[in-house]
Design a protein that fits this description.
- The protein is an alpha/beta fold.
- The chain has two domains: 8-128 and 273-331, Alpha-Beta Complex (Quinone Oxidoreductase, Chain A, domain 1); 132-269, Rossmann fold (3-Layer(aba) Sandwich).
- Helices cover 29% and strands 27% of the residues.
- The chain has ten helices and 15 strands.
- The protein has helices at residues 49-55, 122-126, 129-142, 159-170, 182-190, 204-211, 228-235, 258-262, 277-297, 313-322, and strands spanning 8-14, 23-29, 37-47, 72-80, 92-96, 105-109, 113-115, 150-154, 174-179, 195-198, 217-222, 236-244, 266-269, 304-308, 328-331.
- Strands 3, 4, 5, 6, 7, 14 and 15 form a seven-stranded mixed beta sheet that branches.
- The chain is globular, with a radius of gyration of 20 Å.
- The model has no long low-confidence stretch (mean pLDDT 97).
- It binds NADP nicotinamide-adenine-dinucleotide phosphate.
- NADP nicotinamide-adenine-dinucleotide phosphate is lined by residues 48-50, 130, 134, 154-155, 157-160, 178-180, 184, 199, 223-224, 245-246, 248, 270-272, 320, 323.
């Protein structure tokens, strides 16, 4: 170990399933890194909608994952387990974790630790892993978005959406988004979206048809689900792909399968958290190679809406549930 690590730490616990008030700071043993893992002194932790789902009791941690919420962190490696190459003690890293981020220390698989991009703070770096891994694997791997194609992102002002807009533009796509207010639509345009549709005032199927001269879009990144599915099928071009990443309007829908045949469509989706470390490591490898240079040049950046101290995790969740935010919310006791 390169620095003294206390036996216990402060960590945010979900005391029972419920509202934001069930998040309380408690005392926990500092976790020990196992084989292939490192222990990180956390300086900042990103807040994600799946943490809210976990707090509500609707998204339990996968087997073996800590019950402490938090899927992404930035900090300093302070200890390593056996066979944990790549991130020696003293390295400043950001990491994707399967839980445990809302704490002073957190264990992470070594292959899921990436260097803090040059020029970025720990708070900015903590806001990267969950959305960048998710967008990469869904938009580019599963959705096969290519340069010159078009992407429709539902929820363009979300943490996921602000990442998807920037990455899709950086890789040469035309990007359309939906969002729930004019302020959010403007923020998406400012990030590079070619058009933003306020879904409360406008029908996105009609607008996409107008914007694409009735061709439709090549890929849709959908976090809404429910009755959006038949409408998404209408908004897709021939050979189009829908990538489902959440179901905010519910998991069930009645639909006509015919467009899938007529337009040769692909309906796919994924969840990140339960995937194996080896699968996530492949995503980490692609990000390091293709996206880290964009982060280091400033072409792409995490959009931080607000930071809260760890002890105010419940306020961070209240803000997320109010949906007033644009981009990411981060917990850090070290300020900006
Ligand atoms: N599958 C995976 O691996 C994975 C990983 C991470 C996150 N996710 C999911 O991705 C989503 C975004 O996560 P996040 O952390 O970025 O959360 P977030 O910032 O809280 O975003 C949620 C977004 O959904 C938007 N929204 C809700 N109903 C909508 C509708 N009918 N049309 C368009 N937008 C709508 C909200 O915008 P308005 O308030 O303007 O409607 C808000 O921007 C969440 O549902 C989360 O569970 C999935």
């Amino acid at each position: 170990m390169s620095e003294h690590v206390a036996a216990t730490m402060r960590a945010v616990e979900i005391t029972e399933a419920g509202g934001p008030e069930v998040l309380r700071v408690g005392e926990r043993p500092v976790p020990e890194p196992g084989t292939g893992e490192v222990l990180i002194r956390v300086s900042a932790a990103g807040v994600n909608r799946p943490d809210v789902m976990q707090r509500l009791g609707l998204y339990p941690p996968p087997p073996g994952a800590p019950d402490i919420p938090g899927l992404e962190i930035a900090g300093t490696v302070v200890a390593t387990g056996a066979d944990a190459g790549g991130a020696p003690p003293g390295s400043a890293v950001c990491a994707l974790v399967a839980g445990g981020g809302y704490a002073e220390y957190c264990v992470a698989p070594a292959p899921l630790c990436l260097p803090i991009p040059e020029g970025l703070s720990h708070v900015q770096a903590a806001a990267i892993p969950e959305t960048f891994f998710t967008v990469w694997t869904n938009v580019f791997d599963r959705g096969r978005l290519a340069s010159g194609e078009s992407l429709l992102v539902h929820g363009g002002s979300s943490g996921i959406g602000t990442t998807a807009i920037q990455l899709a533009k950086a890789f040469g796509a035309t990007v359309y988004v939906t969002a729930g207010s004019e302020e959010k639509c403007q923020a998406c345009r400012d990030l590079g979206a070619d058009a933003a549709i306020n879904y409360r005032d406008e029908d996105f199927v009609e607008r996409v048809s107008e914007l694409t001269n009735e061709r439709g879009v090549d890929v849709i990144l959908d976090m809404v689900g429910g009755d959006y599915l038949p409408r998404n099928l209408k908004a897709l071009a021939v050979e189009g792909r829908i990538v489902q990443i959440a179901l905010q309007r519910g998991p069930k829908v009645e639909m006509n399968l015919l467009p899938i045949m007529l337009k040769r469509l692909t309906l796919t989706g994924s969840t990140l958290r339960p995937r194996t470390v080896a699968q996530k490591a492949m995503i980490a490898h692609s990000l390091r190679e293709k996206v880290w240079p964009l982060l280091e040049s400033g072409q792409v950046r995490p959009i931080i809406h607000a930071t809260f101290p760890l002890a105010q995790a419940s306020d961070a969740h209240r803000l997320m549930e109010s949906s007033q935010h644009i981009g990411k919310i981060v917990l850090s006791d070290e300020g900006e």
